[in-house]
Specification:
72% helix, elongated
Length: 72
């Protein structure tokens, strides 16, 4: 049918980056810092569009680095 399941490493990364994104979104919303809020949204949603595991981790680390730089 052409449907392949992601690897356990991919699922683990998606969960970890999703949780980090959720925490960042809540913090950005509470502190009224839109950049942190939108970085959190990006962290929560990007695993749905990135097909390779190594690319997901690369983008996640870059977004987390941006979140650290722009933290409130």
């Amino acid at each position: 049918m052409g449907l392949t399941l992601p690897s356990p490493l991919y699922i683990f990364g998606a969960i970890v980056f999703g949780l980090i994104g959720f925490v960042a979104y809540r913090h950005g919303k509470k502190a009224a810092v839109p950049r942190v809020k939108w970085l959190g949204v990006a962290l929560m949603l990007y695993p749905y569009v990135v097909p390779q595991t190594w690319l997901m981790y690369l983008v996640g680390v870059l977004l987390c680095t941006a979140l650290y730089v722009y933290k409130a």
